[in-house]
Specification:
The chain is mainly β. The chain contains four helices and eleven strands. The N and C termini lie far apart (54 Å).
């Protein structure tokens, strides 16, 4: 099912997209909608290659990433863990990206994720491997405040430049071990698209140069015969 971004925000549309007033209740909804879409990496995610370990419902990890910004408040689909509270989500991109932040929505309950460990450019991790692999960055999530739509989690941008995949290890939730099910309903990414992935053979071409290949680079030799 294809989705198209629009700048409408449902029943909360106020008819003006750039209201920057900040009242007692924080900032207006319209402050968020346009920047969120502009810096979203949504269209650069390779959805078909997303894999999630320990998901109770097959495909639910992919499904919460496929939610558009307009669908972020939808209760369904939801990703829930199965055997225990841990989840491992691998999200590849169509090219190199510079990641700025991660967007998460989870009900404010003991099942909400607490510790996220992030790994870049690793498509080979499972639960045993992540236990022995240093994370690129570890995030401790607060409980999502009631009424807050989505938590934006800034990351150390210098560690997430020109990456082509991110693996998110949800290590635990807010239950302190009492709740085996971890639940989240939206997962998004903000940043800049850098470049399509290129065949690495182009960078290896000069690894073993053949001197014969360069003889015609001497000024004045044989250029005339090539029409140059």
């Amino acid at each position: 099912m294809s989705h198209h971004h629009s700048h409408a925000c449902g029943d909360e549309s106020h008819g003006h997209d750039h209201d920057h007033s900040h009242g007692p209740g924080g900032h207006t909804h319209d402050d968020d909608i346009t920047p969120a879409i502009q810096s979203s990496l949504y269209r650069h995610v390779e959805f078909d290659k997303i894999t999630t370990f320990n998901e109770a419902t097959p495909g639910s990890g992919k499904a919460i990433v496929k939610k558009t910004w307009e669908e972020r408040l939808s209760d369904e689909p939801v990703l829930e863990s199965d055997a225990d509270e841990q989840l491992l989500i691998y999200v590849p991109f169509t090219g190199d990206v510079r990641l700025h932040s991660i967007l998460v929505r989870a009900d404010p309950s003991p099942a909400a994720p607490r510790t996220l460990k992030l790994f870049v450019n690793r498509d080979d991790l499972d639960f045993s491997a992540v236990a022995d692999t240093p994370a690129t960055q570890t995030l401790e999530l607060p409980m999502q405040p009631p009424g807050e739509e989505v938590m934006e989690l800034p990351i150390k941008r210098a560690l997430f430049n020109n990456i082509h995949s991110i693996t998110i290890f949800v290590e635990d939730n807010h239950s302190d071990g009492d709740e085996d099910v971890t639940s989240l309903s939206y997962l998004g990414f903000k940043g800049d698209f850098a470049a399509l992935r290129k065949d690495p053979v182009i960078t290896l071409y000069e690894a073993a140069p053949n001197p014969a290949d360069h003889k015609n680079l001497v000024p004045g030799t044989q250029y005339g015969s090539m029409g140059l």
